[in-house]
Amino acid sequence: MNGLRRVHRGSAIVLALYALVHLANHLAALDGVASHIAFMDAVRGLTRVPAVEALLLACVLVQVGTGLAFLLRRRGGPMPPFLRMQAVSGAYLAFFLLVHVSSVLAGRFVFKLDTNFHYAAAGLHLAPFHFFSCPTMAWRCWRCSSTWPARCTCWCAGASLPQRAYAWDRPAPCWALSWPD
Fold it and tell me: What is the reported pTM?
């Protein structure tokens, strides 16, 4: 394995370990916003250490940079289905990491906000940021409704804020946008 692949794999391992903690934080929200914030506050004691933050940001940049380098090397030629899937998923992951990390950094350092559950939920209601969740919301809508789209109005299609905020009894995705305490 060449050096670039080793660096790519090493940064992937560090990010995967962080992602497990990050997703556990999201799962804590199933018990309510207070549980989510309590878990986040406990974990921030480690993740907000400047050296750890620098390591994580470096890993994101390395992952995106090396992944795009691998993608550019392979472009144009024929690829077996597995490698094509790996290339497409890697390109999406690079896009996601750049958007997600830059959003959190902008929230923290530009807007001086606490990037907790409330910060993420607010992004679902502000144009154009809510369009990033349209594919996920459409998937939830399709998955949860037997007569899609007849029974389901996509969140992006224009339900008013009160309809979105208080639609726990409606088919997905409306219920996913306002988590009850």
Answer: 0.69
